[in-house]
Amino acid sequence: MKRAGLFVGVLFATWFTMGAAFAIPTISLVPSSGTVSPSGSFFIDINISGLQSSGTDAVVGAFDLDLLYDPSLFSPVIAPPTGFGLLLGDISLSEASGGIDASLPGTVSLFEVSLLTPAELDALQDDSFTLATIGFMAISAGGTSGVFSTSDVIVSDDLGDPLSLASPTATATVRIVAVPEPGMFLMLLVGAFGLLVVTQRRFRRDPSLA
User: Fold this and answer.
1) In whole angstroms, what is the distance from residue 152 CA to residue 14 CA?
2) How far apart are CA 159 and CA 129, in angstroms?
3) I need a surface site. Which of 32, 60, 165, 203 has the fewest CB within 10 A?
4) Which residue has the higher pLDDT, 207 or 76?
């Protein structure tokens, strides 16, 4: 009985170790905030993780993907901080080439190809990093939530071979929260002050109410 228990324990430990060693790279979406006010801005990081812990010591040499959103709720802002990360190379220094296209409502298409050598990429990249950052503005009234998701994701290594991903679809949710108008606050304040004045006058006229 003890030997059987020991065998099961060793088998579980072996399985757990192998599972950790052969973890698959993962794409994720990380918004700068989970809530935003109408006309407010935020950005979403498109991250990749699990490169060095995948058992293959993988690096990213290129990627191509679509970021989907609800165009009735949000509008992309193609201005800083929108742009690519630096771990495939600096585009401004001709170390990489890429593009971002937001002309189709509901879709931001982006791609980047590194022009660095495999050794340079290996020295730059770690287990996880940000592939790109896309800015958005809320264009709807409050009380609604929008889902962002990735589609048609292709990630390749430094030799151009495609990397297997845990899931081609990553999602994130951002809620638009209505902010009461200043006029409403003022009306509530005036109403409360008026009620206080009336109450004090009644107490003065009839002390038995106190």
Assistant:
1) 35
2) 19
3) 203
4) 76
